[in-house]
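**User:** My hope is that you can spare some time for a protein that puzzles me. As I understand it, each token names a local backbone shape. I would be glad if you read both lines and explained how they fit together. The protein I mean follows directly.
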Amino acid sequence: MDTGRFRVPAGAMDWATAVGVAALLLGTGLSGQHPAAGRELFGAALLVAGGLALAARRRAPIAVLVVTGLCAVGYEAVGFEVLAVSYLVAVYGAVRAGHRALTVVTSVSVLVVLPLTALVFRDGPAREAFAQARNVLEIAWLIAAFAAGEAVRQAEQRADEAERTREEVARRRADEERLHIARELHDSLTHQISIIKVQSEVAVHVARRRGEQVPGPLLAIRAAGREAMRELRATLEALRDDDTTPPCGLDHIPELVERVSRAGLEATLTIEGQRGDVPAAVGRTAYRIVQEALTNITRHADAATASVRIVHRVGSLDIQVDDDGKAAPAAVAEPGLGLLGMRERVTALGGRLSAQPTDEGGFTVRAELPVERES
């Protein structure tokens, strides 16, 4: 249920306001100059009706605005000179709900009808009739009610916008963190699982070529590796992101190449040029490019050797990873998750990346990363 301040239900607040305004109008009308018995009863009913109508001001602000305006005209015609408090509250509610144009039109109409009603139903000169109309609804009070409703409406809009902004920021941070974790999983976990999978495949293949019985645990490892790779790639496909901060950099590339060599792929590393101050983001990207390229070679290339070449140049860092696999020279590399990730990393740094089969067979990945040297 909608609540007002102090956790009081909004409906209860509306009814309390309506009853209070009705009592105020009735007390003010009966305590001042008012018509004789027959018209007095009808006028009192209009006073009460105008106040009680405010109970519906949240649900139907325009209807309440019209009803309170008609009640004000009615009890003014009967002979009650009471400030149209209920109509002012209705103006506030209608403007707060955003119905500014309709409120202006209705208020102008009421301001025009009230003096005409006084001229028709009251005896006396026109000046006195206009004075009586002002006693029922003054322009100053009307402007004040309109301004109060507009001020509250704008304050509520700003509060709602601030709440939406906080929710969007929190949601964006959660998405960034989730995507960060997903990218880290792809960069590290996929690499390790692929090595386990390839090694189990090789072990099963060697055992069968020798005519030996393949152990059940080894077959289970191979099946688990395949399933893990499928599930991991399917899950990470929807969580790919290019903004991560992995801890590995250029200093970890020799260890990465050595680990791949121990897994069965003959990999070599060549570093040329004089290394300067390479930004951390460039070093991380270089590591991930080499890691992804070696992972793809291990999984897909059917290669025996691979070479990693890193060249430090003035203003750039060049990386090249080649293999002697069976990629056809005319084949087009299908951009998988890893290749897209590499390309996004390089593009984010303002570099260039190419990944394609070579004329001699095999596959090559080349990346040029800009490096801003510190003076």
Remarks:
- The first strand starts at residue 266 and ends at 272.
- Confidence is low (pLDDT under 50) at residues 1-6, 241-246.
- DSSP finds eleven helices and five strands in the chain.
- The beta strands are 266-272, 305-313, 316-323, 352-357, 363-370.
